[in-house]
Amino acid sequence: MTTPRVPILGLAALLAACSGPDSGGLDPDGDTTLDPQGDEDGDGFTNAEEDAGGSDPLDASDVPYAGGWPKGDCRDDIEPTGDAEGQIAADFALPDQFGEMVHLHDFCDKTVMLEFSGFT
Questions:
Q1: What helix, strand, coil percent values describe the chain, rounded to 5?
Q2: Between β-strands 101-103 and 93-95, what pairing exists: parallel, antiparallel or unpaired?
C-alpha cells in the first residue's frame, strides 16, 4: 500500500498555516506558496517537475532522475537492519541505463529486482 501524496500547493498551505507570521514563509520569495511553474530552489526543474519526480522543490541538491524514476516519500525514513532475507539492506547506488547513479532507498515504496552477472 502506498502512502497518499499531498500536492505541493496543499502541502504549502498546510505548512504555512503552521509556520506563523514571523517565519518568513516556506519559500525564498516569502509568499508561502510554491508556484507549480516556478523553480524555488534554482536547480533548473520546475516545482511541478520536482513534485512529480518525488524530489524536494526547496532543495537544489535533490533533483528528479533523468530516467523519470519517481523517488519514494519514505526514502529518508528507512533504517537498514541487515542483509538477510526479510531485512532492510543498507542504501547503495548503481548507474541506470542513462549513466545516472540511482539509490536503492529512493525506491522504498516499490518492489526492486536486481539483476546482475559476472564474467571470468
A1: 20, 5, 75
A2: antiparallel
Contacts of 71 (CB under 8 A, 6+ apart): 53, 54, 55, 64, 65, 106, 107
pLDDT of 34-49, one tens digit each?
788 888 888 898 988 8
- Cβ atoms within 10 A of the Cβ of 3, count? 9
Put simply, whether the predicted model's pTM sits higher than 0.85 gets the answer no
Q: Are 35 and 7 in contact (CB under 8 A)?
A: no
What phi, psi does 92 have (nearest 5°)?
Answer: -150, 165
What grid cell was written down for 77? 525514513
Q: Which grid coordinates are listed for 62?
A: 535533490
CB burial of residue 112 (10 Å; 0-12, 13-18, 19+) = exposed
| Number of alpha carbons in the 13 Å side-chain half-sphere of residue 76 | 5
Residue type at 17 in one-letter notation: A
CA torsion through residues 29, 35, 41, 42, sign:
negative
